[in-house]
Amino acid sequence: MGYSKAERSVLTVLCVLALVLFLSRPAGAMHIMEGYLPPQYCVAWGVVCLPFLVLGVMSLRRTLKENRRLLILLAMSGAFIFVISSLKIPTFFGSSSHMTGTGLAAILFGVTSTSILGMIVLIFQAVMLAHGGITTLGANTFSMAIAGPMVAWFLFKAGNKLKVNRMVTIFIAAMFGDLFTYCVTSVQLALAYPSQVGGVAASAIKFLAVYAPTQVPLAIVEGILTVLIIMGLESISSGELAGLSSPKSAEPSADISFKKGKMEGENDESNN
User: Fold this and answer.
1) What is the pLDDT of residues 50-71, one digit of tens each?
2) Which of 39, 49, 93, 101 is at a distance of 20 to 30 A from 72, taking alpha carbons?
3) Which residues contact 255 (CB under 8 A, 6 or more apart)?
4) Domains defined along the chain, listed by start
């Protein structure tokens, strides 16, 4: 029995995901590891995430209620986050860096929905890959699933309003969303462990210096991958993506619609 293009795409993503699970092994990475943060910081970052997560659940429920076909696209976005954020690249300082993948979801579904996808991915990575931790889940969720996507979403919206080429806009949004995640992580670590000389600022600069040599090129790669995936979705999931610009959407996402097979940014007024 033959498969449709969308079904083949889902199977491909699942195969890549299974391969990553098979080959991955525990390693120190950009996610703040289990037990590294003092308890009060773990609790504080978890509390900061709660409003975004609550809004995310509401947004996803309403989005799927309006268009159940978006479930496949949502699952693929989550799989994309899991796969590329599980590929750890060693740094020169004994740590490792990785892409985040959350820029794609932020562009398609908005910030709060991405917070749910990111948190689910982080839980699986902590339990199955020893990547991150349960006690540090709040801090990791805020940096990778909230702060980074917020920057990606803002830059995408700004690019649309300024009528910048849409693929250039997507690239910039995904790249800087990735980089900002690492900036936030560095500040989180610096707040917990300020330098004796220079305090939090000096400590944040040191943490940023650890990640920068590998993270900058990885962010560029993530921007390119996000552009390629959007281009692919134009050909296999145009109907699902068109549903994201529904006037009944719970949260303003990328304002993506399709006209004659091409994705175009719509004016914000069309969502009101």
Assistant:
1) 999 999 999 999 988 888 888 8
2) 49
3) 157, 160, 245, 265, 266, 267, 268, 270, 271
4) 33-267 (1.10.1760.20)
